[in-house]
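Researcher: Re-running this chain for the archive, since the previous output was lost when a drive failed. Same request as before.
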Amino acid sequence: MRFVSVVFFVSTLASTWAVPLVPVPVIDGDWWQVAGDPDLGSYTRANQQPVDFAVWQAADGTWQLWSCIRGTGIGGNSRLFYGWEGAQLTDADWAPMGIKMTARTDLGETAGGLQAPHVVRWKGMYHMLYGDWVNICRAVSVDGKNFERVILPNGKTGIFTEGPSGYNTRDPMALWTAGLWYVYYTAIPNNQGMDYVRSSTDLAHWSESRVASAFGESGTGGGSAECPFVIEYASGMYYLFRTQQYGASNISRVYFSTDPTYFGINQDERYLVGSLPVAAPEFILAGTQWYVAALLPSLKGIRMARLRWEPPVRRGAGLFDFDDAAVRAGWTRVSGNLATTFTNSTRSNFSPPYQWFIGTAEIDGTNFDDNLTGIIESPTFTLQHDRYVMLVSGGSGLSDRYVALESATGEEIARLSGSNNNAFSDRTVDVSSHVGRTVKIRVVDQATGSWGHVNFGGMFQLEPLPIEIPTPTPTPSPARRADINEDGFVDREDLLLLHSEWGR
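Model: Regenerated structure tokens:
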């Protein structure tokens, strides 16, 4: 079954602080798979999963992908790095290149604890930042394929950490902007997910940390701020992508700021501009074309797609006025034991656009029961526009609690689920290939237990907000770099200079 891409954008009409009117990212076209579930030899296990990864171009022009593979037979925390190589970003099925790195306990790394590599090229050398379960570490390479760890004077590889192993400092990525390197990473003090940032002039010595982003509608749990990735779309325009869910309900929220060190702490109304249906995304700018790489929903490989940037949008006219009793009467409970079709409940932070909405757990406006199940259907209607906004909230689970847009013959066009939060969020659905078709909406709840419900607040036309979308202008890297000689190697003098900088 093939679904359209779905993105949500935050309405700016009900906040004291207005969300910035800036371009927003949209998946552009179909995905292609670049990596699968690798053969690890004796370490192969049926439940292993390629997860956090890095993509970069090596000195010979090939594209490299290293992924943390978890659930392997390596022992300890079960993780190691495996690599693939592709000739072009747009090629499918990159060549497997074998196991690339395993943890070195003799250097202080946690057994089986390697996590989330990230590679940048600077001064003619490749620098890999990675986690070892407790610390952020670094390795370097001349060719972008073969890396050697940077060992500190204490005989260890760990550069910095946010705390002991329970904090799980991990997922580093680096951005050069405004004359400094910034590293963004995740840790979970008190099992609360937070994205941190530090700065450096040399990738070796880092400032003290500060929290760059945390909490908001993604929650406070340990998985609420994973895999931070920051890009500078144009000069002074910074976007943070922050993953909350892996698998079939994968989602990464998108924040915007003009300050690369701060994207809001529980301040979605000022910084949150949207989301993408991806997990652990990496972003690559090739010329003026952006690409996004992300995990497969099955967690058995890695996929890639083009990314485009569009003006932000807001809700326009609604297709169904739920405050009109005659409109509500056209919706039908077709199965199950739901207490009601529509509710005006105020027991939670729903914030619906109408007084009435569909809430499959609601009973009488103040009480609810997550063990109620059933299906509600709309009357049929005709799609007249390329895109619409659908308001969805409630439990997370595309298999058993969702809102579906279907053709009159039962073909599913889009399926949306909540994120274990009752606050409605705007979810934009691209139906451009279905304009003119007769469709209906199905609200499906077959789930029981905690968050065993789904809420639907209506379907609306889109009103694009006219803004200028600038051409991507990546910040140039520092001017001084190690020179590559005619044999393709770094000159010895430059290499010694760089080693002296790393060890300062």
